[in-house]
Amino acid sequence: RKHTIQELAVVRHYFINSLSVLDTYSAGDFARDALQVCTTQFQTKKTLILTGGSGLYIRALLNGLDALPQANEELRTELHRILSEQGITALQAMLKQLSEHVYKNTDVQNPQRLMRAIEILKSPVAVSPTNYVFPYRVIKIGLELPRPLLYERINNRVDEMVKNGLESEARAMLPYKHTYALQTVGYSEWFDYFEGKTTREQAIELIKQHTRNYAKRQLTWFRKQTDITWLDAREADQKIAEIIAGL
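The structure corresponding to this sequence follows.
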């Protein structure tokens, strides 16, 4: 479900209503654009929240992908020259001047991390996982619920979206059903219904089923990571606030 106008007015969100279904947008594109947002926002803010369920997109931002643009080689050569001629203290001073927040959250005794952070701040592009270093401190928090409650909430959310016009939204998208953006849960089931392949009730039940399947795959993906702090979603607000306050 997309956030409401009221919710968007309370907290600034990015990448909502920013693309057409006709646009092609990859995990690499997201990583590049999200990194630019981080670079800008961390000039004045202490904490940003990256939220969502797409593990590939999160990995692209935090770890890099081979398909991302290459680093600024001219700038990298210049930074190596500065390191060779002036030493690591010159790089430390440069990074601190660019962003004290990034400086405080970077291993400033590691010249490679220093140079990578400077590269990103000066020209926010990402490189392959071999060389890519996300220059900000990351705390990963996973929210979980007992499986029956999770599935109940998914079913209720689908019912709410249908009540709020999901069917008419999907029907308006029917001429574009072959676009990549619409090959997803919540649209393809309606398209089958519109073409007489299923009933309306079956379409709604399939949306619920496929969403539950997707949620299960998301949990499988993230549970393989050992650096995530898992919290009960019903009690997470206070604990997350405490974690952020302690940064």
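The mean pLDDT is 86.
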